[in-house]
């Protein structure tokens, strides 16, 4: 059963089936003969070549629209882009469209989801864009599931796109509590000095310098089935602390809570779809600021797990707050822990903004995620928990070093650091959380990377039925 979730005001919903919907024909650039006979002369006269995302309105009697054509490009173009039909949602005249030809099987689902995601508009601080054209969901694509995925993606984008003056630790906690209330989940928040009493010393140390107190957000949903724990890095802004970032590196730090935003979007998908599992979400929400009580380079801090950490760079704070949350995650009954974090620049250097590297010691989990990513056009790539690099995170004076020198294997050493705080099946995602240049279905701004792949892989990761 799919739970009915109020749609995001920033994303469209599928249109109801309507006999008056405008027929939409998706045309392959390698097969222009597929253009309906009544439109071929008009398409030729207009120079329509079915390049990816291009559209053509075919006029009908009385000035109406008889049909619309949208190009999906050639096979070579489709290999270089995802959601190639999605731009039609913004390029076609307002109205309701129904796919009449040109797509079958998985391509229909990708197109329908891309159409919804293309409609996203973040207009909290400015005038909204004109509404996108609406699409009737094709038969047999699982419209309710696609809508839940689009709504979860919209939540993630909204949270990342909101600047820190409106999305600090307190605001992130409010967003989690609102999501929990909408789905009948429980949500508790541990704040400020209460973190010390509750034994979250690293979360407190990183966040105590901010005017907005640090928090540990915990949400629980579901009563039966396997237990999934999602942990998301919630650094709402990262100055770098006393190892302050240069201005050029600080400009996008509102997105440093992208891991938290992505797990909340994924949680919304899971709860909206009423998946048969127990879900726990843990978010350490902090702002890494500078003040008289900021934590310092060379400090040695003791974690929730008891491991000591030498601070060699206060700008490597994300792994610290995640460490306490991961330790908590593994204290309880859980079948799988997944962390998501905008953690290292090294991951971006290796794979760029589109591909989320992930780490796991379980080959079956890796295969499930890789296969799911291909099915849902949400690319991920496995990187290794390379055991010989363990010595790089061992400084000698303490159990662990939060920022090993040398500048090599930064994504791997960060992942190895996090693994030290887990003793349950564990997958770590090092995501970017941002689309730097607008692409089909992915406008410039916040982005949920890896969530759709995880959602599709859950049956294989947790033994659920498909």
Automatic annotation (TrEMBL):
Signal peptide: none annotated. InterPro entries: Leucine_aapep/pepB (IPR011356), Macro_dom-like (IPR043472), Peptidase_M17_C (IPR000819), Peptidase_M17_N_1 (IPR048816). It comes from Loktanella fryxellensis. Belongs to the peptidase M17 family. Gene3D superfamilies: Leucine Aminopeptidase, subunit E, domain 1, Zn peptidases. It comes from the Bacteria. PANTHER family: LEUCINE AMINOPEPTIDASE-RELATED, PEPTIDASE B. Residues 313-320 form the Cytosol aminopeptidase domain. GO terms for cellular component: cytoplasm. SUPFAM superfamilies: Zn-dependent exopeptidases. Keywords: Aminopeptidase, Hydrolase, Manganese, Protease. This is Leucyl aminopeptidase. One of its GO terms (molecular function) is metalloaminopeptidase activity.
